[in-house]
Amino acid sequence: MLRKTTDVSLVINGQLHDLGDAPADMHLAHYLREVVGLTGTRIGCSIGECRACTVLVRHSPTEPPTTKQSCMISLRHVNGWEVTTIEGVAVGEQLHPIQDAILHHDAMQCGFCSAGFVLAGVVACEQMASLEGQDLDTVVEAVTGHNLCRCTGYARYRSAITQVVASYAKKKSSDTPSSISAHFGAAVSRDRFLSTEMPLRETLSSDIQDALRYVPLFDNPLLELIRLLRDAAEIEHSLLVQYLFAAFSIKTPQYAALAGWPSHRYGGRPLHVLGVAIEEMVHLDVVNNLLFALGVAPHLGRQQFPYEQEIYPFDFKLEALSLETIAKYVYVEASARAVDPDAQTNEEDKLFVERLYKVLGTTRPNRVGSLYHKIEAVLDQLRMRHPRLIDFGLWQRRLEEVREEGESEHFEFFRSLFDGTHPALPGLEVWDPANRDYPAFKLSVTSGLPLTGEPIPHHKHPALRHLGNLHYWIVCMLLDQSYRRGGRFHNAARRHMTGPLRSLATELARDGEGMPFDVLPSGYAPGADTLVNLQLTMSMLGEIAFAEKRFAAFLPFDYSSRCALETTQELRMTS
Q: Interhelix angle for 563-572 vs 136-144, to 10°?
């Protein structure tokens, strides 16, 4: 199995932890408990819903902190963070007022959730004190309203926390709120970018063209690399959406383990369809973070459905999970050798490839993997010309990981579905549509965008499609914001994806309807600067809150109406 590593530096309870070659996909909660020994951070649901694993995170000394669900955050995203766990709240023997209040109100019973409540309460206090005019109930609800209590002691926790947070209300108007521009700079400053003294005209070597049988569109390696990376971003985003759609089509609870609902873990080899989708999100991260490191804007565009035939030799559109769609996934993720009939050395692999092509009806080579070979080669050309532009060794390793994860882990996972050997499946015969244990619903896809000038109909399916689109768009907007700020909003993006969006999509699937995943025509960062884009992101969250009230009668039982409120409060603390 491919071991993904990263270099990370973070502060935990005031102590610097400088990690070299750290396991990139280890969750922060596991690192805190198993490596550092801070076992006060509890792991309950492992999918970020119970909040027992809550920690306090400060991204800048001048910014108020926010809560993070440490069971959902991989080490690759925590570089530069200041993390406080329950062990770091008290100062010596002096408890924090939140801790005192919880003890005074006898809020604890078993105590499993208490650390999460304490950290959420501390964050609420600091956020209440940071800005004037904040509504007490809104702050408490946004920061602490998601924490679950095994012993149902919500009223006492809420009373204790509200009492303390109220005393932190900001009264002075002389304090100047921190500015976004003061905290975040471009990955490559204008001076640094121009100091490379790149000539106006550069030519890629003929060797690379001969080796790859590839004629670049641009002679300048930087322009060619940007073009290829944007292509890769579109492909990874498209695959992410396709795999999410497939995961949402799976019947639950019978095949919940195949969909990935019992656990959203994605460290190591993916075990379910959602795990592969989340790894595609990581691949999208790698590509966009490299673009940003080069001083270029992140790219959240994607290919329209059906996909371009030049890349895929078949119609690739939003489809429910089936033997045919799995065959496409196998083909897309495979290396050229893995699906080459002449390269198979044993009878099992020969029969597998023969059956694959019978289902697909094509034998054309896969072009997706070759795109990353091109990117790596052009990156090497850029390194030879401008060796100090970025950390080329780091980015070469990350790109190799992306390619290898697809060609090994994703390929093997989808092959296990195609062969019927995945432990969640009873066998290959399950893919017979006549089988009563068929794993997925058959879905139709209707756009969630109304005709120009038409309102969203006040009916269940149009309402859920519209609200689902809003959550998909906010995921993309949060990712764009996150790429520009060292990954700080990935937790929020994933929370919307695996929470409200999942809830809406699975409810539609029960009725034979698919989530449309319509593209937002304006794009996900239409503002002229960082502050405007942050404000537009908050405006989209306002659209979600409005739609939730308007279509409250149609919301699924497991839909979290607090998710948008929590994200709004987190973004407010950034401005």
A: 110
pLDDT for residue 367: 55
When the pLDDT of each residue in the chain is averaged and rounded to a whole number, the result is 86
Q: Report cis status (omega within 30 of 0) of the bond before 556.
A: no
- How many whole angstroms separate alpha carbon 489 and alpha carbon 479? 7
CA–CA distances in Å: residue 10 to residues 41, 207, 214, 399, 470: 17, 42, 42, 24, 33
* Phi, psi (rounded to 5 degrees) for 263: -155, 130
Contacts of 182 (CB under 8 A, 6+ apart): 62
Exposure of 278 in the CB half-sphere (CA atoms within 13 A): 30
Among the listed residues 377, 409, 376, the one whose alpha carbon sits nearest the alpha carbon of residue 287: 376
Name the band, by pLDDT with cuts 50, 70 and 90, for residue 79: confident
Question: In angstroms, rounded to a whole number, what is the distance separating the alpha carbons of residues 370 and 168?
Answer: 57
Token output for 47? 């999918």
Residue pair 330/273 in contact (Cβ under 8 Å)? The answer is no
SS3 labels along 347-372: HHHHHHHHHHHHHHCCCCCCCHHHHH
Q: What pLDDT shows up at residue 478?
A: 97
Query: How would residue 325 be classed by pLDDT, with cut points 50, 70 and 90?
Result: very high
Is the bond leading into 306 cis (omega within 30 degrees of zero)? yes
Rounded to a whole number, what is the distance in angstroms from the first to the last CA of the chain?
42
Phi-psi category of 523—alpha, beta or left, where left has phi over 0 and alpha has psi -120 to 50? Answer: left
b/e code 514-537 from CB counts within 10 Å (16+ = b): bbbbbbbeeebbeeeebeebbebb
| Contact partners, residue 456, CB within 8 Å, separation at least 6 | 450, 462, 463, 466
> How far is 242 from 246, CA to CA, in rounded Å?
6
Residue 196, pLDDT above cutoff 50: no
